[in-house]
Inverse folding.
DNA sequence: TATGGTTGTCTATATCAATAGACATTTAAA
DNA sequence: TTTAAATGTCTATTGATATAGACAACCATA
């Protein structure tokens, strides 16, 4: 855990800065030899803060389920992961990370119909106000939430996609049933921001966490747009990989 | 500026949360009609905080040069930008964003020689301990720092690249002089984290800001790796675009 | 079983963040 | 010129954050 100092009077509490740093170190494998975080006194010395401040940071990580303190022994690492998420023509949620976890699942959060906004109409190359199916899903890996996505589909072709998705649990399969045997990722935009309230709830994040946001367009093999989606990933659980 | 409430007792000061939210709104164009942020009293009402807390947030944004308060008139928006940064086979710093800004520049921060670590050797397909040229650069758009990058080149082929880069200001040109007429991006990995101390200094960020990190490998047309680089972008100034 | 190392809890204090209110200063518009 | 609306500044107070020290409880090991 290299030397960057933590910063005071920045509006970000010391315990939160330290919690974030320790989380990164855990994911980086810095404590793999022992499977434990260094003793509180050692961390206090290292970060130049009081032991109580370290305890606040570790309590936050324990709340996330990342560490578990055991009196008399130390603070054990419970979980660490950052899934590698390939982005390519064939980007799909489950395929890419299938070999990194035991189980991937995609569950529906909500569905609905809405008229195409100017932005959505532009992306999907349809008229403003055209009917769309909106599908909100939660992506999970080994029962831990990884991403939440909102997708829009032209309702004239895919009016039934929400229903089919609910039964199959797969957008790829739903597309297939609706006469789209294959589809490709046309463009992906990536940004990052702080987690909002919904992110905290759905992705089980702690306040101040970072989400990576992708805005993506999928088209069928005739280059007709079939799906536009905005996905929000827990940044400390994923990395994106773009291969050319 | 939609409804997510700000959160108390999370280790992130209210003024910082609010400053981040207002920055996003500005970049999103929410206040383009007036070119001004809403009055402090209105923001205080909207966020449910005291006016002084809003003033702390606006003071932070003023420090970043994003807004400028004018007594009697209001708080003017000085600058907003989020450069779109294409990632493809032909990923280069200046080309991609050249049409979005008046001037792009890449300046050297530091150079040096070092032996290849296990990780660098694996990426560049050379032997561990082989000599490398390390080049640290700062990417600027319209005189505002956008990214800082550390690149490694095999020293046997590119021992002089730092020197040539210093005179030409372009890695592409330096490659050309060294017998590499063209090169392509093989893989790009993207992660996000909080800005560290060096980021704050080099990228002129405020504490708690987010950096997008790319780890990328470039190869020549014979598929021989020529450059491995780790770049850190100010997340509120860029978006990545991947076209397939 | 004795000991050293570790986490858990308590009290006290200092500093920062946020709230509250009042009033001054500046600007734009009536 | 007047007025309303906006930012600038000040004082006072409260609550959260961080520091400091002491000691209890617990665990692994010699």
């Amino acid at each position: 855990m290299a030397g960057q100092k933590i910063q005071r009077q920045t509006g970000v509490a010391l315990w939160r800065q330290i919690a974030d740093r320790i989380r990164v170190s855990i994911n980086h494998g810095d404590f793999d030899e022992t499977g434990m975080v260094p003793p509180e006194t050692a961390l206090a010395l290292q970060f130049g803060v009081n032991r109580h401040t370290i305890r606040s940071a570790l309590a936050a990580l324990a709340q996330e389920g990342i560490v578990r303190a055991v009196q008399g022994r130390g603070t054990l690492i419970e979980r660490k992961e950052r899934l590698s998420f390939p982005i390519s023509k064939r980007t799909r949620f489950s395929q890419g990370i299938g070999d990194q976890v035991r189980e991937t699942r995609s569950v529906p959060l909500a569905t609905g119909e809405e008229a195409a906004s100017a932005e959505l109409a532009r992306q999907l190359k349809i008229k403003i106000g055209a009917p769309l199916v909106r599908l909100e899903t939660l992506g999970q890996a080994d029962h831990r939430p990884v991403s939440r996505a909102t997708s829009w589909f032209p309702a004239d072709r895919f009016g039934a996609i929400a229903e089919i998705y609910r039964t199959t649990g797969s957008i790829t399969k739903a597309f297939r049933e609706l006469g789209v045997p294959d589809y490709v990722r046309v463009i992906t935009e990536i940004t990052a921001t702080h987690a909002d309230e919904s992110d905290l709830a759905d992705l089980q994040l702690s306040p101040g966490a970072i989400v990576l946001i992708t805005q993506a367009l999928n088209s069928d093999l005739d280059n007709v747009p079939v799906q536009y989606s905005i996905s929000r990933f827990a940044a400390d659980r994923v990395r994106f990989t773009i291969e050319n």
